[in-house]
Specification:
11 helices; Nucleotidyltransferase, domain 5; binds 5'-O-[(R)-(carboxyoxy)(hydroxy)phosphoryl]adenosine; about 350 residues; six-stranded mixed sheet; globular; about 20% strand; 2 domains; binds zinc ion; alpha/beta
């Protein structure tokens, strides 16, 4: 069974063809990143205009690389939320058009749940229960999976990736901030500056990263250029964020009594985070499942893989009624997928 996955939730136009829910035949990611750089963040209007220009080429290229044609596709899986509404609508509209023209079933996928799915591409899938940590530019959440997803905690202000991006901007670095800060941090001392760690109470699984970002701003304001070594700030900031992410993820495992953690999202590409989480978890006999580098940031292979699993689980096989639309604030566990009309409403 061939699934065409499409994700246009943010600034990447991503299309992928996946066979039987596991073999990635193509994984195309066009990014409008360089057009956003000078603004220090994604400009929604620019992102969706570029999606309109790029999406048909991305689909053509994904099919060509997979040596497939539209008539070979058995299912189209498209992200319907969360994300930028204009961007989401581009992917949804083209997915609907292809579904209608090719008489192909269409399934709408939750982007956050797809991020966790990316940890299982070309890897063994652990049995539930597990704790999931999604750390991306727009989201930071902890979830519990015991067949279905339950939200345990989420950020009350900035997402982890957003904090990296904002601190990079404060330091005069380029967007996206995560990779640049990680690289700079390699030459810095993570213990040089003790930036605040906001735990929001001993048992809270919520996050807050706006305080550490402001602390970086004040540190720069209060120290002269000679006193400041940017690499130390980068390393110390990164360490503060990682301390919080690791501590809260392991706390969630303790509360839920689970011994598996699945991580997804752009910040999951951070090597220091991986190393720290894996070694701290190992001391508690907890195993960590990570996506390979290319599947951490936005991609459509994760959407196709989750689409396949959801479709197999869904009892009906009729063609979608094409009522699918964007849900920009879609939350974790709210809806893993939607098949035309809400399946519960059609049964
Ligand atoms: O998952 P993603 O591609 O897009 C969203 O769904 O938001 O995540 C992008 C975010 C950006 O904020 C970027 O700075 C961050 O992931 N990121 C990183 C690293 N690579 C990307 N953060 C820390 N370390 C990295 N190596
Ligand atoms: Zn994402």
């Amino acid at each position: 069974m061939l699934v065409l996955g499409i994700d246009t939730s943010c600034d990447e136009t991503a299309v992928s063809v996946v066979k039987n829910g596991e073999k990635v035949l193509s994984n195309i990611v066009f990014s409008s990143l360089k057009l956003h750089k000078k603004f220090g963040g994604v400009v929604p209007e620019i992102a969706c205009r570029i999606h309109v220009e790029a999406v048909t080429y991305a689909i053509k290229q994904a099919l060509t690389e997979a040596k497939a044609e539209l008539r070979d596709i058995d299912l189209i899986a498209v992200t319907f939320g969360p994300g930028l509404v204009g961007s989401l609508l581009v992917g949804i509209s083209i997915a609907k058009s292809f579904s209608f023209a090719g008489n192909i079933p269409l399934i709408g996928i939750n982007h956050l749940e797809a991020h966790l799915e990316s940890a299982f591409i070309n890897r063994t899938r652990p049995n539930s229960p597990f704790v999931g940590l999604v750390v991306s530019g727009g989201h930071t959440c902890l979830v519990y999976n015991n067949g279905n997803y339950e939200l345990l905690g989420r950020t009350r202000d900035d997402a982890a990736g957003e904090a990296f991006d904002k601190v990079a901007k404060i330091l005069g670095l380029t967007y996206p901030g995560g990779p640049v800060i990680e690289q700079l941090a390699e030459d810095g001392d993570p213990e040089k500056i003790r930036f605040p760690r906001s735990f929001l109470g001993r048992d809270s699984l919520d996050f807050s990263f706006s305080g550490v970002k402001t602390a970086v701003l004040y540190y720069l304001r209060d120290h002269s250029a000679e006193e400041v070594k940017i690499a130390d700030i980068a390393a110390s900031f990164q360490e503060a964020v990682i301390d919080i992410l690791v501590a809260k993820t392991l706390l969630a495992c303790k509360i839920k009594r689970v011994d598996k953690v699945v991580v997804g999202g752009g910040v999951a590409a951070n090597c220091r985070l991986r190393k720290r989480l894996i070694s701290d978890a190992a001391e508690l006999n907890i195993k960590v499942y990570y996506p390979s580098g290319q599947f951490c940031t936005d991609n459509a292979a994760m959407v196709a893989v989750l689409g396949y699993r959801c479709y197999k689980r869904y009892k009906k096989r009729e063609i979608s009624d094409l009522s699918l639309t964007a849900v920009p604030n879609l939350g974790f566990g709210e809806k893993e997928y939607i098949f035309g009309k809400d399946p519960s409403a059609t049964s």
